[in-house]
Amino acid sequence: MKLFIFLIIFLYISSVLGQDKPEITERILPEIKPIGTTGRLNCTVINKLDNYVEWVHNEKSLTQDETIVVDPKFNQIVNGYPKYQVFHRKIGQKDSFMLVVNHLEPKDKGIYRCQIWVRNDQDSGRLVSKDGKMVVVFPPQILQMDTSSTMTVKEKENVLLKCGASGNPKPNITWVRVNGSPLPDGRLRARNNTLLINSIDRNDRGVYRCLADNNVRPPAQFDITLLVAFSPVAVAVQSSYGQVENRMYDVIIECRVAGFPEPELKWHKVTSATTWKQLKNDDKHTINILLNHANSLGQNERWFQIVIRSVTANDYGDYICEGVNNHGSGSTKIQLFATSECQGPLCEEEQRPEDRKGSASITKLSHLPLMLSLIIGYYLIKL
Ligand SMILES: *[C@@H]1O[C@H](CO)[C@@H](O)[C@H](O)[C@H]1NC(C)=O
Ligand SMILES: *[C@@H]1O[C@H](CO)[C@@H](O)[C@H](O)[C@H]1NC(C)=O
Ligand SMILES: *[C@@H]1O[C@H](CO)[C@@H](O)[C@H](O)[C@H]1NC(C)=O
């Protein structure tokens, strides 16, 4: 009996509370969409009766039931569709109002509230509401900040490379070197908006790439070419060269000079303990700058040579290979000394080095008169 009365009371209460009271029955699922696409949010209501179901965003009422109520200036046509649309669907007891936000932009993100003002006999009304979240994702875009695409820094300086990117979610920034070599600190990649290079070295020059990725295609990247200025460094290929005098033999003296910006290269002859004389192209000397030498040169390095023709006693002594740029100069001393026999690769042929190409057949031909005279001489003796 007690149970029966209890049941009656329970049924009564539940009918009073449940009846005629609009409720939003389901959670409004968050909508995560890329920029430019269409976002949809559903509000499903039971016992709607004659109450209005409203969608509200940023304090602006967008819709009431199937009517767009937002100021038309906020509901212009973009790509053929109005910014906001609402679709009503009735499924049994339930009414579903789907808010459609067309051509999503970053400013469309945020909370959209579905609300119902429930009219009520006793007081002015009761607000029933649920929130839905709109997330507008967009791919990274590099923000061109104060970092330009080419930077020249001095060796030993500290360098801070910066890279900023917009995007939602906030992109991760990663630094790599484009040639695949490790970053100056030894890591292959570094996750940070900035890349600090302490006491930069000339070997740190190259292209640094900032990659911005937030898993929304496509990722973005920005390349910074880092040039490292340094005072020239000259290195002798051989510290001394020998050549015999007065036999019409040439000698080629060579050095390598690195430097950035591109140094001016000079050959000098040491004329006294304190003086040098700069050598120029003339009958005696030919100066060559090679940008490539059997792939043995480093970046910003040149192969620098001087040909001294028909070495005579005057030519012996010290030569200076020098590079000069606006950061300083570097030089190395190379000696030319006397020998009793011909030295070096130019001895085979008593010819100028620039004629060496294709010299094999010429050399053979040059022996022809000698051989002919030997043969003729032989026969003359026999006769
Ligand atoms: C909203 O509801 C409609 C049907 O009522 C359904 O087709 C659609 O997929 C739902 N959309 C979302 C975002 O839940
Ligand atoms: C990012 O770089 C800044 C500046 O060099 C540094 O202070 C910070 O610790 C770095 N963050 C990480 C996570 O390495
Ligand atoms: C950034 O990287 C971390 C660690 O790899 C990852 O968990 C996170 O999802 C990334 N963030 C974005 C926006 O891609």
TrEMBL record:
CDD domains assigned to the protein according to its UniProt record, in alphabetical order: Ig (cd00096)
UniProt-listed InterPro entries: Ig-like_dom, Ig-like_dom_sf, Ig-like_fold, Ig_sub, Ig_sub2, Immunoglobulin_dom, Neural/epithelial_adhesion
Domain Ig-like positions: 22-116, 140-225, 232-337
Protein keywords: Cell membrane, Disulfide bond, Glycoprotein, Immunoglobulin domain, Membrane, Repeat, Signal
GO cellular component, one term: neuron projection
Organism domain of life: Eukaryota
UniProt-listed Pfam families: ig, Ig_3
Signal peptide: 1-18
Compartments (UniProt record): Cell membrane
PANTHER family noted in UniProt: CTX-RELATED TYPE I TRANSMEMBRANE PROTEIN (PTHR12231), DPR-INTERACTING PROTEIN ETA, ISOFORM B-RELATED (PTHR12231:SF253)
Name of protein: Ig-like domain-containing protein
Organism, as annotated: Dimorphilus gyrociliatus
